[in-house]
Amino acid sequence: MGVAIRTAGAEDRELIVRLLDEAFQDDPVSSWVFPGEEYRRATHHRLMAAFTDIVLAEGRIDLTEDGSACALWLSVPADDAGHGDGQPDGAAAEDDGPARVRLAVDPENDRVELIGRLTAGIHPSGRAHEYLWMIGVAPERQGEGLGTALIGSVLERCDREGLAAYLEASSERSRLLYRRLGFEAAGEPLTLPDGPRMWPMWRDPRPEGTAR
């Protein structure tokens, strides 16, 4: 049976924030940004809310009909100056975006800003692509193929339209999933200071129009 997917709207905001918060509580990068379980549980949801608001305004969020999984996408043009960070074009906006997120989320936590600057610094430029910012699956539903279905629906469109896709994998498990979907390493891994690695990954469109 196929997975029913729809485009999320503003009325889905709280559901998406809660879903992302639960899905990423144990993620290596989230654990680095918000070290300590108690601190993370009290603060992490605010970063997920900031990401959700950016993508609702600037991109698209795909949501399974049962609310168990979501994927946040941005369409990045070839001449994008902000490296797909969801901010208006221009160098000043690129500089200010991560700082504004930190101030809104957790002003004393430099890592909230640093993660935005580091990922922007490795983001490919010069070619239009779809950027998978985040994908979250409810912990009790992981391993059922929901993430593959969400990503695959966009990759099929990328193949039809001749568009590339890009993402940063935040764990070994997700990196293996993305490799099965046709993503390949796009440069060296990003090693966060005293923290885990992130893997930039790129997928060229497939002429046959298949996502898997």
Brief sketch in words of this structure:
The protein has 212 residues and is an alpha+beta fold. It has helices spanning 13-23, 28-33, 37-58, 91-105, 110-122, 146-161, 172-180, and strands at residues 5-7, 60-64, 69-76, 129-137, 164-169, 184-185, 190-191, 197-203. Strands 1, 2, 3, 4, 5, 6, 7 and 8 form an 8-stranded mixed sheet that branches.
Summarize the structure in words.
- By secondary structure, the chain is an alpha+beta fold.
- The protein has helices spanning 13-23, 28-33, 37-58, 91-105, 110-122, 146-161, 172-180; strands at 5-7, 60-64, 69-76, 129-137, 164-169, 184-185, 190-191, 197-203.
- Strands 1, 2, 3, 4, 5, 6, 7 and 8 form an 8-stranded mixed sheet that branches.
